[in-house]
Amino acid sequence: MKPLRLESAEDGMLRRLWRGNLVAFAVLTLAALLVAPPKSVVSLLVGGLIALVNFGLLERTVRRALLPRERSSALRKVLIKYYLRFIATALVLFFLMRQGWVEPLGLLVGLSVVMLSILAWGVGQARKLSKEAV
After folding, report:
1. Higher pLDDT residue, 9 or 65?
2. Which of 29, 44, 102, 103 could disulfide-link to 110, CB 3.0 to 4.6 Å?
């Protein structure tokens, strides 16, 4: 199976987002190792890994939907996979919390990794645009 490639500006943007995701995950993990109890660190790691896996699966789903041969029912496929992934993630989180293996705050911080990196990327893009406009 060939790798899914979009030869465009979006490909570079996704690489930067992935780099940002990994940097945010590493920084949050290192900070937690310094100041948080072990269960919080584990919770952050679990949440971050869930967020990164979900982001990767969403990227793959969207890339496939954008390929010319699969465009006919692309939106429906993306939405179905999104909701299935959402339900699976909710079940995993429920199970982890119910068993007491993770704590809510660390898990929430870990799950926020992707959101934080996308927010940082958006702020950077807004700064670039405002400098170009002046």
Report:
1. 65
2. 44
> Whole-number mean pLDDT of the chain?
88
List, for residues 67-118, the tens digit of each pLDDT value.
766 556 778 888 899 999 999 999 999 999 999 999 999 999 999 999 999 9
Q: Return the exposure string of 47-70: e unless at least 16 CB atoms fall within 10 Å of the residue's CB, then b.
A: bbebbbebbeeeeebbbebeeeee
Q: Any residues with CB less than 8 A from the CB of 104 and at least 6 apart, and which? A: 43, 97
In the chain, domain spans: 10-133
- In angstroms, the Cα distances linking 116 to 39, 72, 105, 132 are 22, 33, 16, 24
| 43 contact partners, CB below 8 Å, separation of at least 6 | 102, 103, 104, 105, 106, 107, 109, 110
Q: Is this model's pTM higher than 0.90 or not? A: no
Dist CA 117 CA 134 (whole Å)? 26
The sign of the CA dihedral 47, 52, 32, 28 is negative
- Which three-class secondary structure state does DSSP give residue 38? helix
